[in-house]
Amino acid sequence: MTGSPRLLDGKRCGDALKADIATQAEAVKASRGRAPHLAAVLVGNDGASKTYVEAKVKACGSVGFRSSLIRLPETISEEELLARVRSLNADPELDGFIVQLPLPAHIDADRVLQAIDPKKDVDGFHPQNVGNMVLGLPGFLPATPAGICELLKFYHVETAGKHCVVVGRSNIVGTPISILLSRNAYPGNCTVTLAHSRTKDLASITTQADILVVAIGKPGFITADMVKEGAVVVDVGIHRIPDASKKSGFRLEGDVDHASVRDRCTAITPVPGGVGPMTITSLLLNTLKAAS
Ligand code: NDP
Fold first, then answer.
1. Catalytic site residue 123?
2. Which protein residues touch ligand 1 with a CB less than 6 Å away?
3. Model-level pTM?
4. Residue 200 CB neighbour total at 10 angstroms
5. pLDDT digits (tens, 9 = 90+) for 22-32
6. Range list of H helices, the chain
C-alpha cells in the first residue's frame, strides 16, 4: 500500500473523552457533595502492574476523581484479600474499585473477581456484568474491549458487515471484544471469527480480516504476511522489551510487528498510545457511571 496508515491514537481519543468526563464529574460532585471515587488494589510488586495501577490513579486526578491506591503484600492470603474486597464493597465513600491482575499464584483470581459487588465492578469482570454485556443489558463493559469500541467510534471506523478476526480468547479482552463487535450496534454488526492457540493455519484466517484485533501476549507475532491489504489493525498487546538505549531500560512493543504491518493496513493502533490509554479512559467512564 502507498501512504502511511491512519494512526488510531488512543491518547488523542482518551483526552477528548476525558474532557467530557471531567465536566460530568464536576456535576456529580455538585449534586452529591463528593467527587467520583475509584480505588485500585495492587497485590505484590510486579513492575508492569505497578505502572498500570499508577497510570489509573493519575488519570483519576486528571478528571477530578478521588482515587485510592491500596497496596497489599505478595504474601497476603486469599481469605485476607477476600475480606478486603468485602470491606471495599461496603464502603459508602467508594463508587468503584479494581483488583489489578495478575494475582499471585496462590490466590484464585476468579474467586476474588466474583466477590466484587457488581455495582462497584468498574473493570466489568464480574459474571453478572459479563452476562449483561452478552445480553445487551445495562452494566459495566470490560475496560479494554469497551475502550477499543470507543476508539473505533472516535475515528468513524466502519464496522457493519466487515469480517473481524479476533486473535486471543481471554475473558478480559478477546472473548468480550468478539461479543461487542458482533452485536447489533455501532461499533458492531461485524461477522466475527475468534481465533486462539488451537486455530489451524492462523494466517489463512487473519488474512481474511477487514478488522484484525490481536490480543495474544506474544511480541511482534502478527507479521505482514498475516494481514489483508487495507485492513484496520487493533494491537492490544503490550510488552516490555529490554533495550539498553532507553533510559527506562526497556521499550514497549505490541503483539503486531508494526514495522512490516503498517505498510499493509489503512489504520493501526500504535503501541504505546493506542489501546492502553483507552483501557484507562473506559475505567474512568465506568467509574463515572457507578457514581452517577
Ligand atoms: P491471555 O494470555 O489471557 O490470552 C492470550 C490468548 O492468546 C489466549 O486465548 C491464547 O489461546 C491466545 N494465543 C496464544 N498464543 C497464540 C497463538 N500462537 N496463536 C493464536 N492464539 C494464541 O492474554 P490477555 O488477553 O490477557 O492479553 C493479551 C495481550 O494484551 C498481553 O500482551 C497483555 O499484556 C495485553 N493487554 C493489554 C491491555 C491494554 O490495556 N493495552 C489490557 C489487557 C491486556 P488459548 O486460549 O488457546 O490459550
1. yes
2. 144, 167-170, 172-174, 195-199, 202, 215-218, 236-239, 255, 275-276, 279
3. 0.96
4. 7
5. 999 999 999 99
6. 10-32, 47-62, 78-90, 109-115, 127-135, 143-154, 174-182, 202-206, 258-261, 275-291
